[in-house]
Design goal:
This is Iron complex outermembrane receptor protein. InterPro entries: Beta-barrel_TonB, Beta-barrel_TonB_sf, Plug_dom, Plug_dom_sf, TonB-dep_rcpt-like. Pfam families: Plug, TonB_dep_Rec_b-barrel. With about 900 residues, the protein is mainly beta. It has a domain of about 625 residues: TonB-dependent receptor, beta-barrel domain (Maltoporin, Chain A). The chain has ten helices and 48 strands. The two termini are about 30 Å apart. The N terminus is likely disordered.
């Protein structure tokens, strides 16, 4: 949905994130007679046809051409510059997690603290949905968007379920494709960090031909390929170690190498630095796993788009479109931990270590025992765990678009969108049975260097295979009619009506091989499959009450086959008493339907995001008598997750109420200021109780901590044999797993202000100068972990899984003269209280400088530097990601990065 006039005029050549097209159009002083010649088009957030940007909802517009000149090379990077976005899901998050290397946008941060995917922001491509990413069917992967084919990004900063249906709780991000393109354009980008690592190379080709008016057809195509090299944690000082300020336990693991035998560690007191170091007490060794992870994985993105239109008759055309996207990433984390039996007869059994009766694995008698012990060790000789993530996205559609009369437009489309993802292990993941056999027969040494036979046994145990597959499919049919019912004294009475049918299917499979990989954290029983269909009817009415005041009323009814119906209305007002002053406001309800993964995921096992002390066996960080610190202190704990369908339960949709109102003024010529207040309330939150909450109040949630003694030794269902940690029972009774089943939780309330400003100096002999600001301030952010529970305040602090930034802004100055253009921009995030409450994370400010030259016909050259001052991310002690010392979800680990872009158009 286009937001420009029929001349394609762009009125925001300064940094488009700041204000650009929409606000400039609001204060266009062109006489009414001249405005009547403008094309009436659809604006994101409304189905009505309007002139220019006349709308009651706040919309931010980003021109992709400007972003590319400033060094942005991916859709993920473009959305990280949006001040309303507080997404915790990006390419850095894929390190150590089975995310499919996806990236998501989370307006207002409605999903961040609960550790959810960004499932409350709707992502559209040319006004229509894409299939959600295959691994959770919750949100669209931004890597599925073909950036080379996108003209601009329209961001609706308001709830829009009455217009678009589910997911549009926090807002809508609509990627608008290029509509008019003739010729061929080649582009190449190169970026290199001054400290090395993470280099980017990008190439794109776009082309188009034909004119509907003259030739009766148009064809447009785009190809884009981007590759980024890996950046390891050891390449940056702020992430090179998990031992920060003497805090050994937080960023290290009790699974060390050399290993320990039932708490006896032969490498003490020195351990094996720098990878293995003594803990604060000197009583055990800790492995510095942070040294072995990737800050950024290696990644390749390839996208392609082909669009065509044919004029069937005057005022009637047929459009066809096909999108293909492919995303690959390779991630690395520390070598796998493991528990294995070691007989006393092994040549590597430590001298001086006590032995006891352990199962005799060489005997066919299940009751036979031999002297030995249980080894807890990190399999460093097998190398870092390396995973490969492959995701593809396809969308094909046919659309019929036409006019009934001069004031009525219609369109109807049918299409299919599919997302597929596969995760594979490449190295460092070993067959647990073969490793156990190697320790039992004395070939593998868990306490030091390997013999040739031991290393050969480890290499033979390496597994290279797919471990997870997922597919999400969306089939849709829609139709819409929009036009004017009547001409009132104040203007046209406008109406838009439409219908939509969708069928969703999703399947997720964990392959059996995953059960043999102890360090993977996946359960081979974690498969799910489900489907549903939905039908919707929606309408929107625009009523001009006076020449300066108009009312918009919208409503939508959705019926889902799995949970029933929902009805959501929206009321909007727009008052413009003069060309220099606008007031607007809206009130709407909304909803998010539970995803198919939410509903149908069976009970399965993974690991908690953070590491914790057992509240009974490591109270205060000191292991209880008889308990091993490497088992009960500072450890990730197995988590049992699953949808309610696995236990016969059900989920209700999340419901929301959104209020917004604001004003835009032009106090003096060429100065535009805007402020919008927003308030969002969400109930019936869907998720699992955060593990941080469970361990923070272990007395209250004691029932969520299931110990080995509470499980049967064998039989059907969940047993002690499913958990390696239970090999320590009955010596001591550790936690087998934490129960975190998906359920409806409590409420979330958040409010704040969006502010913007644009100052454009009058053109002169020295050129054109514009200065712009866009910022978001969160007044309040509080949520309940469970229905009826106390509200937790998260604004300006790290809570459960992520922080909520009080203030974010972008500030930029753009100068242009003749073929030259120069942009200096600042991106800022305020500081916050850390996950460790006694520490405060500092504010984060980056400066970017770019310059472009177009002095030769059809050639544009742009150079720049991102993070001009080479600013490191602020120190944080967060434990929700594998990277430690900084937060990879919100900061740039590359440092100062030089950029070069060349663009040539034939």
């Amino acid at each position: 949905m286009v937001l420009i006039d029929n001349k394609g005029t762009s009125q925001g050549t300064c940094r488009p994130l700041l204000l650009a097209l929409a606000l400039a159009a609001l204060f266009d002083s062109t006489p009414a007679a001249a405005q009547s010649t403008l094309e009436r088009v659809e604006v994101t957030g409304s189905s009505l046809l309007r002139v220019g940007a006349q709308t009651h909802v706040p919309v931010t517009i980003i021109r992709v051409a400007d972003l590319l000149r400033e060094g942005v090379t991916s859709t993920e990077e473009a959305l990280t510059h949006v001040t309303q976005n507080q997404s915790a899901i990006g390419i850095g998050r894929s390190v150590g997690f089975s995310t499919g290397a996806k990236s998501e946008v989370d307006l207002r941060g409605l999903s961040a603290p609960m550790g959810r995917n960004a499932d409350k922001t709707l992502v559209l491509l040319n006004g229509r949905r894409l299939a959600a990413h295959a691994f959770d069917s919750a949100a669209v992967d931004l890597h599925a968007i073909p950036l080379a084919a996108v003209d601009r990004i329209e961001i609706l900063r308001d709830g829009a379920s009455p217009i678009y249906g589910t997911d549009a709780v926090g807002g809508v991000v609509n990627f608008i494709l290029k509509d008019r393109f003739s010729g061929i354009e080649l582009s190449a980008d190169a970026q290199q960090a001054g400290q090395g690592g993470g280099a980017v190379r990008r190439f794109s080709l776009t082309g188009g031909t034909g004119s509907l008016a003259e030739d009766g057809y148009t064809i447009f195509g785009a190809l884009d390929h981007r590759r980024q090299r890996a950046l390891s944690a050891s390449q940056r000082s702020f992430s090179a170690t998990g031992v920060l300020d003497g805090r050994i336990t937080d960023g290290t693991s009790g699974f060390s190498f050399p290993g320990d035998l039932d708490g006896y560690e032969p490498s003490l007191p020195a351990c094996a630095p720098p990878a293995s170091v003594p803990d604060e007490t000197g009583g055990s060794c800790r492995y510095d796993y942070s040294r072995d992870v990737d800050n950024l994985p290696s990644q390749e993105l390839s996208t392609g788009l082909l669009r065509g239109s044919v004029r069937l008759a005057p005022g009637l055309r047929l459009n066809a479109e096909y999108l293909r996207a492919r995303s690959e990433a390779t991630t690395r984390i520390a070598p796998a931990p493991g528990y294995h039996w070691l007989p006393a007869s092994s040549p590597y059994f430590p001298a001086g270590a006590a032995s006891y009766a352990i199962p005799d694995l060489s005997s066919g008698d299940p009751d036979a025992t031999v002297p030995g012990g249980l080894v807890a060790w990190r399999m460093v000789p097998a190398g870092p765990r390396t995973n490969h993530h492959l995701s593809t996205a396809d969308r094909a559609l046919l659309e019929l678009q036409g006019e009934l009369e001069s004031s009525w437009d219609y369109r109807a489309a049918v299409g299919r969108s599919v997302s597929r993802s596969t995760e594979s292990v490449r190295r460092g993941h070993v067959d647990d049975g073969l490793i156990q056999a190697g320790l039992w027969n004395g070939s593998i040494n868990p306490f030091g260097a390997q013999s040739a036979a031991g290393q050969a046994a480890i290499e033979a145990a390496q597994v290279v295979a797919p471990v997870q597959r997922g597919e999400s499919r969306l089939d849709f049919i829609d139709a819409r009619l929009a036009g004017d019912l009547a001409m009132l004294p104040a203007g046209p009475l406008s109406l838009a009506v439409g219908v939509e049918h969708r069928r969703e299917q999703a399947g997720f499979e964990t392959l059996d091989i995953a059960g043999q990989l102890a360090g993977l954290g996946l359960d081979p029983d974690g498969d799910t499959r489900g489907s549903r269909h939905s039908n919707a009817l929606f309408a929107e009415l625009g009523v001009p009450l006076t020449r300066s005041l108009d009312l918009t009323v919208a409503a939508r009814h959705d019926r889902y086959s799995d949970f029933g119906s929902t009805f959501n209305p929206k009321l909007g007002l727009r008052f413009q008493p003069s060309a220099q002053w606008l007031l607007r406001g809206s009130l709407a309800t909304g909803f998010r339907a539970p995803s198919l993964y939410d509903l149908h995921q069976p009970q399965s096992l993974t690991y908690t995001a953070g590491s914790y002390d057992d509240p009974l066996l490591c109270a205060g960080g000191t292991p209880a008598d008889g308990a091993s610190a490497s088992v009960v202190c500072g450890q990730q704990v197995v988590s049992r997750i699953g949808g309610p369908g696995a236990s016969g339960g059900s989920l209700q949709p999340e419901k929301s109420t959104t209020v917004s109102f604001g004003t835009v003024i032009e106090p003096v010529e060429r100065l535009t200021l805007g402020i919008d207040y927003w308030n969002v309330k969400v109930s019936n939150l869907i998720g699992g109780l955060p593990d941080q909450a469970i361990f923070a109040d272990s007395a209250r949630y004691a029932g969520r901590l299931v110990r080995c003694s509470q499980l049967p030794a064998s039989g059907s269902g969940v047993t002690r044999s499913d958990f390696g940690v239970c090999a320590n029972y009955p010596g001591f009774d550790p936690i087998a797993y934490v129960d975190q089943q998906t359920q409806n939780l409590g409420e979330l309330h958040t409010s704040g202000f969006d502010v913007s400003g644009l100052w454009r100096l009058a053109p002169s002999a020295l050129g054109r100068l514009a200065i712009g600001l866009e910022g978001t301030y969160v007044l309040s952010y509080k949520y309940q972990r469970e229905a009826g529970g106390e509200f937790i305040s998260a604004a300006g602090r790290y809570s459960d899984h992520a922080p909520i930034f009080r203030w974010q802004h972008t500030l930029s100055a753009h100068w242009g003269a003749g073929p030259w253009a120069l942009t200096l921009a600042q991106r800022f995030k305020s500081g916050y209280q850390d996950q460790e409450p006694t520490h405060r994370v500092g504010s984060y400010s980056l400066y970017d400088l770019s310059a472009s030259w177009s002095g030769l016909k059809d050639l544009v050259v742009a150079v720049g530097v991102k993070n001009l001052l080479d600013t490191d991310p602020p120190r944080t002690y967060q434990l929700s990601t594998y990277q430690y010392g900084y937060d990879s979800r919100y900061t740039d680990p590359l440092g100062r990065t030089w950029t070069l872009r060349m663009n040539y158009r034939f």
